[in-house]
Specification:
mainly alpha; rod-shaped; repeat; microsome; Protein VAC14 homolog; ARM-type_fold; membrane
Length: 791
Amino acid sequence: MNTEKDFSPLTPNIVRALNDKLYEKRKVAALEIEKLVREFVAQNNSTQIRHVIQILASEFALSQHPHSRKGGLIGLAACSIALGKDSGLYLKELIEPVLTCFNDSDSRLRYYACEALYNIVKVARGAVLPHFNLLFDGLSKLAADPDPNVKSGSELLDRLLKDIVTESNTFDLVAFVPLLRERIYSNNQYARQFIISWIHVLESVPDINLLDYLPEILDGLFQILGDNSKEIRRTCEVVLGEFLKEIKKTPSSVKFAEMANILVIHCQVADETKLTNDLIQLTAMTWMREFIQLAGRVVLPYSSGILTAVLPCLSYDDRKKNTKEAASACNHSLMKLVTPEDDEEEEDEKSGSTGSPSKEDGQPKTEADGNDMLNASQESVGFSNISFFTPASADRPQVTLDLDGIVQVLDRHLHDSSTGMMTRIAVLKWLYHLYIKTPRKMFRHTDSLFPMLLKTLSDESDEVILKDLEVLAEIASSPAGQTDQASSCDSTTVHKLELKVPEGAKSGQQPNTGSKAVDSSPSTPSMNSYFYKFMINLLKRFSLERKLLENRGAFIIRQLCLLLHAENIFHSMADILLKEEDLKFASTMVQTLNTILLTSAELFQLRNQLKDLRTQESCALFCCLYRSWCHNPVATVSLCFLTQNYKHAYDLIQKFGNLEVTVDFLMEVDKLVQLIESPIFTYLRLQLLDVENNPYLIKALYGLLMLLPQSQAFQLLSHRLSCVPNPELMRTVDESKYMDSKQQAASKRASHTQMDYNELLQHFDRVQSKHLEVRHQRSGRASDHPDRKLM
């Protein structure tokens, strides 16, 4: 520094001392400067005061010489002390050169700068608040300083500044938030500690409403929550907890919509191996749960993103029990927000200015159409494109359910083979709920959902299959699905069927499925055009997946009988099987249906309906079943036994001599004998007591006996027939009255049946001829094969 230069009003001695390398001499010079400035203050000579400050700043604090810079810093602090309350008039000139020294490479100089600023702020107190952003910016750099002395000095200054802000009621939060939003994304541990401590302080000041600006810093808070430092994480948890408490107290003033996507992002774990991510996810899910409960329908536009985050968590194990429970609560609360109101067409669709038709209902929204409803699961942490939804003044906010987005998310989880069981169940519950609450809009998506719903019937979990069947049953029975013709996914003609409404369903109650009670449908479950489509595709799936038919076929059909009425299921399947080209599958399917008909408790009412054939409807059902049952001779006989058509059963058995008797055939006869001994056929066994009026029953049973080889079933049936009493012993005294009553019962039954049994026998012959022809063709191909050996 040029000592010859004029630094007046600073004396040469002061200038030399300020440039000295010894701290004590610089301190003496500072005392002289303080004395000099006090004189100027007393004289009210602001010009000289500014001149002194300008010399200390430009010639010393910003000098190239380190000792000069140290002297300038202590000199500026001395000026501030001398100015006292008036220092506020010169704060800009005092603070800026000191803050510049915060960037000095010399750690000692950075420490002196921190010390000088401490003295300036201590004197000015609240007057420094207009310069708060500059101070905060400088302190945030010192917080990460590698030198412990500098860091210690910055902490003292930090505490002083926090005290000033806490005491003041003029803090400019609006000007500060942009800087806070910028610095909150620092990855430095000490900088994060500094930031989170300031947020904690500001949040605790009653006169500072930081909650209004929470959307701007919430993402950064969750970033800090993932810090490796346990202390920082704990402080961040406390801050987030305080914010959540305040949100619960004043929900009406909270900008829920602006924070929804931030929570969606942090509810999704990118790296499950990091324990801090678990904490972020649990905290975000907890916030999401509270948001849904407090904000209600305001969050509906974000429902697709919320489901993307929530659904995978439902399959977590006990290691993430808390997250799973929070996710389950979110899912349940969000589902309750969907109401029948969401099935109403939007006003802009109803009153289009051009009156031209809109896009096809079945098409989902394009990416451009959905810009207003950001799917947070597919976006990065940038919120410039988020559309904010704020509560309207009315009691219920005017929001739109993002149904297309929800369906896409649900469909994606169904297609993903890695999706956990509980998640799949939740997806199906959502689909069922949407079909109940918004059936008209949901049927736009049915054609795209239908194949996956059918495929889900092959799931390993019984509970998943049950929920899947509930969805399919609702699709098949909802009035919203009633169209002139079902959408064509196959070439089969849809036949008009007289379908029954399930008992109890007319009153709006769903049949009991044996599991937890399902939400009752408000619609009358009359079968729609999708019902027959469902039956066709279900049988196709059984045909292509024989393991599914063997392992789950009976289970699926029994549940459908509960959901859609047994008569509907059996009538439609029999009608479809009548035209089945794969005769072997048709025979297997008839055998499965027959076993279900004869053994399942769910079909008790249908069995009673068929037992007497007293109505035209029951006779029509019998004829429909009979024609398909002809694919399986033994099943046809059992159907005749069930309907008490004993003479026809005897006629059929007489024709068995012309059929190819195979081991499988004999095994079916064996099973029929076992069934005759079961409670289902109690009435049949009792009719053996009335020998004279049931001769064909006895003949039919003897016919079965003659078909059987000497086996356990043979012995069982033989023993039963040996118990048939002598007709002479069974005659009563008043035989004429007894015979009259029997004849009356028979005539009453005959008056309703009026069936052409000869035509039914001819149909049986035609079907069996086809089966025989197919078997001969197969055996011919087998004999022609050079490597095939005949057994």
